Amino acid sequence: MSTSGILIVVMAVLFACGVYAMLERSLTRVLIGFLLLGNAVNLLLLIVMGQPGVAPFFGEGSGLAGEGGDMSDPLPQALTLTAIVITFAVSAFLLALIYRSWQLGQADTVEDDDEDIAVRERGIDAEDTMDDDEEEDESIATDFVGVDTTPVTVVPGLVDDAPLDRPKGGDRR
Questions:
Q1: CA angle 74, 79, 83 (to 5 degrees)
Q2: CA–CA distance, 17 with 40 (Å, rounded to integer)
Q3: Inter-residue contact 38 to 56 (CB < 8 Å)
Q4: Across the strands, what pairs with 109?
Q5: Are 70 and 58 in contact (CB under 8 A)?
Q6: I need a labelling partner for 88 at 20 to 30 A (CA). Which of 74, 79, 114, 120 fits?
Q7: Cβ distance 154 to 146 under 8 Å?
Q8: How many C-beta neighbours within 10 Å does residue 24 have?
Q9: Rounded CA gap, 134 and 98, in Å?
Q10: Cα–Cα distance for residue pair 149/143, rounded to 1 Å
Q11: What is the pLDDT along the chain (173 residues), one digit of tens a residue?
């Protein structure tokens, strides 16, 4: 197996472990999963970068755009730096969430609240009956024309129907 093949397998394992860890209720495991996903993305960007060990703008044919040469694509390198910064920022935010959760409840697991439990227990039949309870009123106007509660009122005499005579060339006197 080549070096790229090994990196692809490692990247796939990191993605799989990261997604599995992020599906847990523990915020610490979510953080670990996010870090694994961040490293997998960095490996993905390094794999698509091109030949390893080659500078992005230096090599044979680096002067002409049409010539091929031993060059590496610089865009994945820039994206890798951006991915590192984003992973660091989101990890710091998750660490703050974990710390605050530990301060408030001495646990870092996300628990269901009463509304989540009520929504889970409500079945499809309850949603169908809720849809049937709502009766549509046919007399409701949708365009507000001729209604006392019109959002925009036009006062007669303030609006002139004649076109405005403005001098051309941006000169407004």
A1: 150
A2: 10
A3: no
A4: 26
A5: no
A6: 74
A7: no
A8: 14
A9: 42
A10: 11
A11: 676 788 899 999 999 999 999 998 888 899 999 999 999 999 988 888 776 666 666 655 544 444 556 666 778 888 889 999 999 999 999 999 888 888 888 877 777 788 877 777 776 556 666 666 555 555 555 555 565 665 566 666 665 555 555 555 555 55
DSSP lists the bridge partners of residue 55 as: none
CB 76 within 8 A of CB 46: yes
User: Could you tell me the two tokens for 114?
Assistant: 């009463």
Classify residue 26 by its DSSP letter.
Answer: B
Extract the tokens encoding 92.
């710091």
The one-letter amino acid code at 118 reads A
**CATH number 2.60.40.10 is the correct assignment for the domain at 3-54+73-115:** no
User: Residues 21, 33: contact at Cβ < 8 Å?
Assistant: yes
Q: What single-letter amino acid sits at 43?
A: L
Contact 57, 73 (CB under 8 A): no
Tokens of 52: 């390893």
